[in-house]
Design brief:
19 strands; binds zinc ion; 9-stranded antiparallel β-sheet; 411 residues; 2 domains; alpha+beta; Thermophilic metalloprotease-like; 14 helices
């Protein structure tokens, strides 16, 4: 059982700082049956904030697994019109979206990955307009997480299940700056200021490219898109409301030039994607594209990510995070991207965020593509930061600047 006061503070943080729900606004909670308690509290806080109506869409991983086991691929691929229409309604009516994740590690292990891939691609296509809406920040959206027994036991196998669940809750609260003696909404105002400073320094530098090296074998040059913008922390949605897309967040991130990544990147944390945990992997890039890769565990799952669509072998995001951050200092591997990506420098295969280039949110995607924006139906972050990461930035005039040393910002 999570501490009730902390759970309330966390839910309020998701509603006020995360989605910044406005009076009279529709709220959509996309959540898991593992997170009933937090879902109820978030819904309550949303109504307190003045939500007109809170819509809840539940996901249950064991039920999804049964579907994959027993139903036909053709039947699973069929997405009824009413189900698509509900997303149309939310998008057209300026809803605020709150996702609550509560993963069951390896929930879908054993499922035919080809079948899963086909179904996911098909479903993604049908609500692609919804992904474009959120990734283009047209209205507010945010993601938070809830502890659950399977996840907690996976992280703390030596503990009794109740103790493990509580320990994971405490880790989540701590990582999100939700403390017994603070007002997390105020704490996040200060944190957003810190991120704004980092973004400003990086934007003022206007780097042409970044060169990442460490002792694990990462030796990678990432060219940035022209007129790129470093972002992170709070954002302004298309509807004018300031919100925080991720809680927690520690990153400053921007858009790579689609064809400008060269060399090798070695992952430093496992990647938990579509119910599978990929471990000990590396990718080799040439002119922006992954041309070689390997993984000691779940190589096929990595292959599926890379072959998701025509552009999923190119990257859409590069993010810098000091190794010395509240999340990496917990020394807990959360096996969840929301947390782990904020403990480590990371990049994402697939779609870029339009906001990371000048006037990106107002420019049609096909125009952005001409500049080197990567358009894909997927966006999968993975972590490669380390305590010995060094980053050297090259400016437009060719001069070099040390950006990271020993894993931390030095700029
Ligand atoms: Zn990121
Ligand atoms: Zn990302």
């Amino acid at each position: 059982m999570p501490n009730k006061i902390l759970l309330e503070k966390y839910a309020r943080l998701a509603v006020v700082t995360g989605a910044n729900v406005q009076k009279g606004q529709i709220v959509v909670l996309r959540t898991s049956t593992e997170a009933v308690e937090l879902t109820r509290e978030v819904a309550r806080q949303a109504y307190i904030a003045g939500a007109k109506k809170v819509h809840v869409i539940w996901n249950d991983e064991p039920i999804s697994k049964s579907g994959y086991e027993f139903a036909l691929t053709e039947d699973l691929k069929e997405m009824p019109q009413w189900s698509i229409d509900q997303y149309k309604y939310f998008v057209d009516n300026n809803a605020a979206f709150i996702s609550i994740v509560s993963p069951i590690p390896n929930a879908l292990a054993g499922v035919d990955s080809q079948k899963m891939q086909e179904v996911m691609v098909e479903n993604m296509k049908k609500i692609n307009f919804f992904r474009e809406h959120t990734m283009g920040n047209k209205s507010q959206w945010t993601i938070v997480a809830a502890s659950n027994p399977s996840w907690a036991k996976k992280l703390f196998p030596e503990l009794q299940v109740d103790v493990a669940v509580e320990k994971l809750w405490d880790a989540i609260f701590g990582a999100c700056r939700v403390l017994i003696d603070n007002d997390p909404v105020e704490a996040w105002k200060a944190h957003n200021e810190y991120l704004r400073r980092n973004n400003k320094v990086l934007n003022d530098s206007n780097f042409k490219s970044l060169h990442f090296t460490n002792s694990l074998g990462t030796d990678l040059v990432v060219e940035l898109i022209e007129d790129h913008i470093w972002a992170g922390g709070s954002e302004k949605a298309g509807n004018g409301v300031i919100f925080n897309p991720n809680i927690p967040t520690e990153e400053s991130f921007t858009m790579p030039f689609k064809f400008g990544t060269q060399g090798r990147v070695v992952a430093t944390k496992p990647l938990n994607n579509a119910g599978r945990i990929i471990e000990d992997f590396w990718l080799e890039f040439k002119d922006g594209k992954v041309v070689d890769f390997d993984a000691k565990v779940e190589k096929e799952a990595l292959q599926n990510i890379l072959d998701f669509d025509a552009n999923s072998r190119y990257i859409g995001e590069i993010a810098l995070i000091s190794h010395d951050s509240p999340i990496s200092n917990t020394n807990i591997l959360f096996l969840n991207t929301l947390f782990d990506e904020n403990a480590s420098c990371h990049m994402a295969l697939g779609r870029a965020y339009p906001m990371n280039v000048k006037n990106g949110n107002e420019t049609p995607i096909n125009e952005l593509e001409k500049k080197g924006y990567n358009n894909s139906m997927t966006h999968v972050d993975f972590m490669f930061g380390s305590k010995d990461m060094k980053i050297v930035g090259t400016k437009q005039d060719g001069s070099k600047v040390l950006v990271f040393e020993n894993g931390n910002f030095v700029i």
